[in-house]
């Protein structure tokens, strides 16, 4: 209803006013009804809406671009809403938590929206209810929903006005709650609301548009529901309830409508969930459902193939521009076998979506209905590539084109200190958000203010349950892969039925599908942050915020040139939406504008090419990605040695040649897992975020889990074998480092965040470059160590961490190693800077090597032995004493006794200290006699323990080292290496992966040629002569 429209039929006005009077206890009417004149249909507001400076109408500042010739519709709606406000508002004496108090201010806009909606669906010329009219309860629910949404939009401005009124002393009341109610009383009155909207014309526009769109979208849904009675009765979207019961499922039988269950698009339209008087549920989707209908056809075909587990798709009624879908109710599994079947079907669904180039399958798009995973939204099939330009990193390119792109596998939302899986397989649990969101402190008082707090995600229905408990997805990785394999194979063997002019894929050719050029949270954040009161006075100010989309500050979109449409839709209060067609290269905006789409073939052509290319090699690659990604869903501790213990095997004599052969097998596996492009090589692997969360990713540059780890091991292997393929792979892995170091040189403010650490910082990169350059006799690689060293030195000035893994102790040890090998002055100066920081700071309270006091003490003692002073020696000894006193019961290098003992054993000054020497003698023996670790890794596995047992300062432990090394070698001969990941899933990294296992095998066979990476020692390589079965002596001298 626009400007000059009648306020609504008399029967509507009476109904709405009656609801207001009934709720006067918490609203804006007077308790005795004496203010009924305040609710006249359209009171005269002319005196409240004057002109601004220069004679401009009040609404001009709310517009962008040339001034409209006439008053915009939103301005007329705002005037009419103000006219609905009472002359004198009455505010109930009660608490107002969160934003409930502001409902009284925005209620006239919601009431006006209810008028507009009812008028649109009324019959008999607007004098009575029509076939699309709904009950008073549904109307009341609509009004309340609009009130809540408008209160959110107005909150920042109202809090700002509240603050100004309190500071200026304009509020009366004995306490903060009383003064808050006085603010509501003043602002919710007709004059107060008029003052608000004229002072903040952009806010008036935002509120009016949101209210109008809500009314129009709701009325549109009701009209469509009324018109579709006959098709709905004959369709199956209502299940058995709908068959033959035409009159029972019109608007008049609605009891509840849940609007806004997804993002709003195209003028406030969003998915709505409908409930009818008999409990039946129905989903309304205000967009074409042809793709859903054709996906159902494809699923029926897929289910007919031999070996497939049988999928279920929601039934839909496609009505062209919109449609109705079956409401899928979540339900538990009936047995453990049913849960396994659920995940087998989920794997099959993953395969089907992978070949169809589906994406965005997050936890809200999947419902666990017994043993069936039901996909409730397929709007992103045939999706174009997610980046404008293919990544230069071959591993990133492979990952973006892999099964991981679907979104069903773990996808972490990462914050500063925590992360949360948002995927369909691993997400959906109730948890705190990793990202801070705006919230309100002291709500309902005159000191109410905005704070940034941790938000909360509610539980979703995507996970199957059994006996009231949600399933652990990691336990069902095999079932997931079995389903994927079966579906992939079935599609490959029957692909002729999908391809060509008569193939099933042609059904989708003209279907509307979604194109997502940016993450939708980018738009949602812009909409939320642009309600700041500073942006609500003048539209030009808000326009500048929206214009950030043009700058790259919010990330690069998948397609450039869409910014005008994005901004226009944001001004409508919508999340911008873009669509395409599988057989077209164009995209369409939410307003219907047709534009050039991403370069390259159509979505249909890409999918057909992918299906033609399906083969066993690709399937195995996709299965490996699935297994690696599923590590993110493990609930076990990252350093807990997760996984089964290997069966006891008879030890094999750990002869150097046998150890070298085992290391070559690891090297060959690494080379085979690598992705190549031109002169560059990289791997897809696992990153351990914050030592808590595993994430599938192309390897970064760090030594712990990045590509410098495989490069270091492969260079060591090449130096011992002379095999060019290992040396070439090592060089190719390091190829991006010069560009990365140049980029970091220009981003000095970020260096502190990266740190100088030995394994997750820049010090480890400098160490790896020095080692690889020396081992391969490659002066170019060795030269790269120079800028890496300088960056590590700079990072040491700004970092906060102290440990070996990512802080100053690691920077100290790695830069000392670089200095020892190259003599670089900047390496020594950087080491000095790290040492001084460690001396000046109390050591960590934890005792471990990687992040605790043991590593700090070890690093300081190494510096003292290399030329430091008594201060460093004393501080190092004190840190080690603290570490041994607080050592835990674990055996791992990273956090346990092995690491603390290694720090003592590798420090001559510590061995001369009675307390430390006696502690080492007792606890090193305990470690030697303990059962082997459950994995082979350096970090928390057997090879980290062997570094201690084989140390030259502990000759009495040599028999234990021989026995356990032989046992590990025998096990490696019989089965794949056990990485230090949940389930021992292979990945390329150094500390927990294959590179570290290969490095450990070389250390065992050639200890005088291969220096221990865990101790930042130098490797000489080259000579393969037989050496005694001992580790190298301490080389601090």
Automatic annotation (TrEMBL):
Record's compositionally biased regions (Pro residues): 1-10
Pfam families: DUF4135, LANC_like
CDD domains, per the entry: LanM-like (cd04792)
Record-level GO BP terms: carbohydrate metabolic process; peptide modification
Domain of life, per lineage: Bacteria
Disordered: annotated span: 1-46, 632-654
Record-linked SMART domains: LANC_like (SM01260)
Membrane-spanning residues: none
Record domain Lantibiotic biosynthesis protein dehydration: where: 200-581
Name of the protein: Type 2 lantipeptide synthetase LanM
Organism: Streptomyces sp. gb1(2016)
Source organism phylogeny: Bacteria, Bacillati, Actinomycetota, Actinomycetes, Kitasatosporales
UniProt gene name: lanM
């Amino acid at each position: 209803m626009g400007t000059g429209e009648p306020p609504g039929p008399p029967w509507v006005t009476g109904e709405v006013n009656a609801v207001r009077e009934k709720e006067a206890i918490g609203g804006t009417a007077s308790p005795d009804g004496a203010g009924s004149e305040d609710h006249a249909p359209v009171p005269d507001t002319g005196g409240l809406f004057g002109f601004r400076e220069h004679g401009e109408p009040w609404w001009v500042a709310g517009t962008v671009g040339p001034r409209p010739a006439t008053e915009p519709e939103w301005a007329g709606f705002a005037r009419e809403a103000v006219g609905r406000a009472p002359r004198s508002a009455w505010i109930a004496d009660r608490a107002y938590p969160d934003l409930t108090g502001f409902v009284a201010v925005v209620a006239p806009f919601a009431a006006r929206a209810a008028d507009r909606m009812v008028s649109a669906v009324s019959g008999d010329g607007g004098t009575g209810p029509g076939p699309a009219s709904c009950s008073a309860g549904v109307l009341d629910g609509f009004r309340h929903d609009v009130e809540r949404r408008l209160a959110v939009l107005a909150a920042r401005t109202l809090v700002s006005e509240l603050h100004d009124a309190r500071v200026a002393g304009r509020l009366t009341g004995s306490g903060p709650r009383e003064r808050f109610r006085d603010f509501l009383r003043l602002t919710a009155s007709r004059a107060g609301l008029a003052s608000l909207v004229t002072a903040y014309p952009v806010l008036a526009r935002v509120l009016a548009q949101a209210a109008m769109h809500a009314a129009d979208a709701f009325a549109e849904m009701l009209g469509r529901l009324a018109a579709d009675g006959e098709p709905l009765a004959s369709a199956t979207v209502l299940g058995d309830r709908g068959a033959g019961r035409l009159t029972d499922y019109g608007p008049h039988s609605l009891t509840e409508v849940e609007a806004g269950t997804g993002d709003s698009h195209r003028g406030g339209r969003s998915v709505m969930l409908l409930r009818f008087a008999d409990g039946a549920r129905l989903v309304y989707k205000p967009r074409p459902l042809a793709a859903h209908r054709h996906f159902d056809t494809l699923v029926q075909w897929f289910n007919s193939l031999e070996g497939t587990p049988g999928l279920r798709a929601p039934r839909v009624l496609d009505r062209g521009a919109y449609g109705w879908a079956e409401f899928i109710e979540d339900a538990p599994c009936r047995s453990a076998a049913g849960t396994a079947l659920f995940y087998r079907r989920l794997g099959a669904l993953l395969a089907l979506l992978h070949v169809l180039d589906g994406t965005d399958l997050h936890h809200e798009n999947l419902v666990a209905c017994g043993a069936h995973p039901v996909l409730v939204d397929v709007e992103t099939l045939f999706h174009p590539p997610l980046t404008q330009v293919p990544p230069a990193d071959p591993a990133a390119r492979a990952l973006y084109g892999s099964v991981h792109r679907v979104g069903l596998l773990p996808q972490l939302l990462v914050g500063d200190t925590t992360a949360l899986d948002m995927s369909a397989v691993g997400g959906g649990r109730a948890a705190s958000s990793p990202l801070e969101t705006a919230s309100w402190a002291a709500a309902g008082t005159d000191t109410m203010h905005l704070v940034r707090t941790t938000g909360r995600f509610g539980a979703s229905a995507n996970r199957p349950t059994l006996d009231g408990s949600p399933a652990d997805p990691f336990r069902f990785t095999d079932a997931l892969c079995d389903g994927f394999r079966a579906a992939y194979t079935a599609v490959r063997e029957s692909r002729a039925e999908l391809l060509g002019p008569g193939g099933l894929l042609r059904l989708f050719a003209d279907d509307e599908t979604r194109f997502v050029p940016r993450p939708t949270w980018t738009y949602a954040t812009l909409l939320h942050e642009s309600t700041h009161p500073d942006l609500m006075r003048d539209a030009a100010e808000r326009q500048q915020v929206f214009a950030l989309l043009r700058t790259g500050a919010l990330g690069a979109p998948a397609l450039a040139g869409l910014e005008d449409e994005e901004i226009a839709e944001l001004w409508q209060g919508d999340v911008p939406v873009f669509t395409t067609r599988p057989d077209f290269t164009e995209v369409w905006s939410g307003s219907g504008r047709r534009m050039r789409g991403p370069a390259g073939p159509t979505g249909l052509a890409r999918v057909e090419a992918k299906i033609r290319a399906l083969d066993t090699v690709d399937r195995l690659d996709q299965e490996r990605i699935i297994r690696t990604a599923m590590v993110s869903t493990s609930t076990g501790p990252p350093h807990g040695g997760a996984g089964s213990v290997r069966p006891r095997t008879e030890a094999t004599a750990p002869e150097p040649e046998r150890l070298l052969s085992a290391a070559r097998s690891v090297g060959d596996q690494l080379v085979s897992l690598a992705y190549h492009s031109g002169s560059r090589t990289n791997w897809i692997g696992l990153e351990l975020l914050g030592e808590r969360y595993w994430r599938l990713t192309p390897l970064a540059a760090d030594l712990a889990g990045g590509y410098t780890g495989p490069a270091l091991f492969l260079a060591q292997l090449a130096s011992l074998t002379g095999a060019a393929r290992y040396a070439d792979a090592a060089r190719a892995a390091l190829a991006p480092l010069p560009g990365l170091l140049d980029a970091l040189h220009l981003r000095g403010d970020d260096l502190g965040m990266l740190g100088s650490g030995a394994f997750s910082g820049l010090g480890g990169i400098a160490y790896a470059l020095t080692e690889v350059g020396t081992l391969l006799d490659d002066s170019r690689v060795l030269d790269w160590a120079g800028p890496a060293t300088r960056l590590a030195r700079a990072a040491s000035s700004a970092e906060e961490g102290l440990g070996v893994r990512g802080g100053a102790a690691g920077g100290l040890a790695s830069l000392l190693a670089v200095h020892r090998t190259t003599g670089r002055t900047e390496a020594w100066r950087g080491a000095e800077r790290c040492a001084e920081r460690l001396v000046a700071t109390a050591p960590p309270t934890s005792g471990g090597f990687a992040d605790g006091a043991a590593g700090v003490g070890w690093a300081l003692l190494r510096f003292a032995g290399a030329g430091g002073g008594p201060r460093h020696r004393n501080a190092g000894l004190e840190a080690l004493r603290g570490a041994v006193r607080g050592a835990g019961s674990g055996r791992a290098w990273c956090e346990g006794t092995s690491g603390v003992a290694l720090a003592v054993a590798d420090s001559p000054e510590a061995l001369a200290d009675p307390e430390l020497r006696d502690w080492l003698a007792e606890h090193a023996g305990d470690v030697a006699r303990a059962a082997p670790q459950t994995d082979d890794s350096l970090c928390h596995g057997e090879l980290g323990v062997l570094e201690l047992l084989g140390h030259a300062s502990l000759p009495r432990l040599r028999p234990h080292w021989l026995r356990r090394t032989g046992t590990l070698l025998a096990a490696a001969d019989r089965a794949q290496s056990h990485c230090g990941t949940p389930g021992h899933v292979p990945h390329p990294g150094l500390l927990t992966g294959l590179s570290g296992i290969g490095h450990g095998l070389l250390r065992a066979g050639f200890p005088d040629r291969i220096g221990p990476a865990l101790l930042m020692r130098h490797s000489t390589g080259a000579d393969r002569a037989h050496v005694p079965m001992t580790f190298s002596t301490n080389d601090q001298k």
